[in-house]
Specification:
The protein is of the alpha/beta class and 246 residues long. It contains 8 helices and 10 strands. It has a single domain, classed as Rossmann fold (3-Layer(aba) Sandwich). Bound molecules: 6-phosphogluconic acid (6PG). It is an enzyme of class 3 (hydrolase).
Amino acid sequence: MTNSPLHVFPSLDELSVAVADAFCRSAAEAISQRGTFRVALSGGSTPKRLYELLAKRELDWDHIEWYWGDERNVPHDHDESNFRMVSEALLDHFPSAQANAFSVPVDTNDPVRSADRYEAKLKDVFHGQAFPQWDLALLGMGDDAHTASLFPDTAAISENERWFVANYVPKFEAYRYTLTAPAINSARQRWFLIAGANKRDALARVWQSDPNRTEADQLVAAQVERYPSQLIQSPTWFVTQDAMPG
Ligand code: 6PG
């Protein structure tokens, strides 16, 4: 099991409602304290229902900035684009939100330069910080225990200096774009949203890490054990019952 906060739900719908409630509370608190709520969004399919629910909530749209924690190396109108998924579920409903959405400037022919440009944007926004201090980083987990686009056996899981990189993923024979582990761990809050029985085994392995291991040792272990989701420090887990290890 995990030592971090864990919330278990019977269904993805109920998980998404709970996360939407927490998101609204967190955004209101950040805006009242710091004037802006900066969130790094997760892609894939799990968070789509959350984004659809947020589109129906009363949010202070003018003071929320939307970023992507990872992206695929495809045009923004491609059906695999995380930008397209978030836009259709949420941002297209609010022109002001689109104005505050900062997507990865994907040039499929030059993924390294695309990542460098996005990293420069982030360093401009989080000027002077060692790593980007998001108010919230939303994360998913694959059935191979990857998170963002930090896939097992890829260079990015060992990157501890850069904020955002192009990461070649052999199993896809393609580049992905991703925040690095330190650029996720620098977030004030890190929430995993995990649903589906196909995630159960990976979650069991991610939680199997030795709770007595120091965080530094755990970072090394994660890279060795190739369960990149272990790289994320002190997350809050939002998990459906069917994804819970037996
Ligand atoms: C992506 C995501 C990725 C995702 C996991 C889980 O771009 O695909 O950011 O890290 O969270 O792959 O994806 P599902 O939610 O579709 O299972």
